[in-house]
Amino acid sequence: MTLKLHYHPLSAFCQKVLIALYENDTPFETVFVDFANSESREAFLKLWPVGQFPALDDTARDHFVPESSIIIEYLAQHYPGKVTLIPDDPDLARQTRFRDRFFDLHVAVPMQKIVTDRIRPAGKHDPYGVEQAKARLHTALALIDEGVQAKTWAMGESFTMADCAAAPALAYANMAMPFTDTYTNAGKYLQRLMARPSFARAWAEAEPYRANFPKA
Asked: What is the crossing angle of helices 184-195 and 197-205, to 10°?
């Protein structure tokens, strides 16, 4: 196996890459990264000192690729499959990349702020930061709600990299700050994402670790 994905199944950004791999039945193997285990943590830090997963190691091409969006770009270039996750048309490709970054930066990031604050030690919480994160998430959800009103997927009728980013980000956001009753179009979009076989598989694989996620 030439592709090795260093990951943790609970991570939204890791699930994003898993969706892309599963969409195209791309052969790969996983390397479980457990930061609670010193040996696992140190082994990963030697490969990627930044210490953020996922990271893809392509041993056949001798390329180490960190960051979820860049991994999907790399897969599209060197291991294309039946599903074109980044459109060939330059304008559509740019719009897809924008939506991918939107879900990462304006849904996943504030969601993580809300969640990580819940597991901080007593006296170390950041209520103002959480308030800002929730406001930012509401702004994003309102835009998503409007944007998917007449669409099946983020870009229209084609499933793309943007949907790979949206699926785990929205699923976890709904656990952190339930939104489906308020933003009904976004809620229906999340339902479609949850039913997509690639995400359903990645989501199921995270189930044994989901008890570690601090819900609202």
From this structure: 80
User: CA dist 85 to 39, 71, 80, 150, Å?
Assistant: 35, 12, 9, 20
pLDDT in tens, 115-136: 999 988 888 989 999 999 999 9
Q: Are the C-beta atoms of 14 and 67 separated by less than 8 Å?
A: no
Closest CA to 165 of 72, 30, 28, 37: 72
> What DSSP letter does each residue of 25-37 carry, written as one string?
T---EEEE--TTS
- pTM for the predicted model, two decimal places: 0.95
Structural domains in the chain, sorted by start: 3-78 (3.40.30.10), 90-196 (1.20.1050.10)
98, two tokens: 């924008």
Cα gap 164→198, rounded to integer Å: 9
